[in-house]
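retry 2 of 3: previous attempt timed out while embedding zinc ion. Reduced batch size to 1 and resubmitted. Inputs unchanged:
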Amino acid sequence: MEVTFWGVRGSIASPGPETAKYGGNTSCYEVRNDAGDLVIMDAGTGIRKLGMKLMQSLPLKCSILISHTHWDHIQGFPFFIPAFVPGNNIDMYSPKQFEKSLEGVISSQMDYSVFPVRTAELSADIKFHNIIEGPVEGIPGFEVFSQFVCHPVTSSGYRVEADGKAVFYTGDHEKYFDQYHKGIKEEDIDPEVKAQMQAIVDVQNDRVIASCKDVDLLIVDTMYMDDEYSDKIGWGHSTVEMGLELGVAANVKHLALSHHDPTKSDDRLDEILKYARKKLDDMGGKHIELSIAQEGKTIKL
Ligand SMILES: [Zn+2]
Ligand SMILES: [Zn+2]
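retry 2 succeeded.
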């Protein structure tokens, strides 16, 4: 199995000389098993170039796992050329977002008020599947498990397995925290209630750790640093430090920090890698390979 990174940026595409090394496209990852079956994780702007590559070998059959339908995870789909070609088969999966189905959100994104081409004009055979947490059945060549994670909408991380290897992609994920006491002063909090809430939070975090357990590659949302986090609590993204903690707790082999904040330049990400390497070693993760997710890179598992 191998994983190729087509978009590793969070929130908004960020092209320019200062992001040329790690890339400016938003979330998109290509997963291939040894037989060549294809799963795509998220359809951010990175999927445009992936689509151009896939056009060289038609007809296409693939599954697209959407973590959630925030813009940066679906914005490239209207530019995914294989979706316009008859004879291609595309199965798309996502949790339902509030009252809207996956098909409803994609159709809204391709409504005449915001885009010149409607979903009715997509000539490929496209099927939309709303999923819940648990095994995702029927994906050729792969075992897939959907693990709901902490984000302002229902959002799924995905564990994808094939050929005895496993990758977990968190999508957008903030380490679970006590939302009930957010913004309340310490002295106004009942310690008993706080302990109860913390127990619930711990269970949620343990479930995410269990789904990442022993994977060969963990692609983790680490948009912020701990010292940037205090005014971003509840925005749905983890810090680098939280990502390292998850990697150690889940005993992963390779940890790829991803969903880079658009303001983080290549130089800054290089600095973060140095800092994170030392921190990971100090946390007992010396054996874990660590990298900054980089557009265009392929990791063989
Ligand atoms: Zn995102
Ligand atoms: Zn999001």
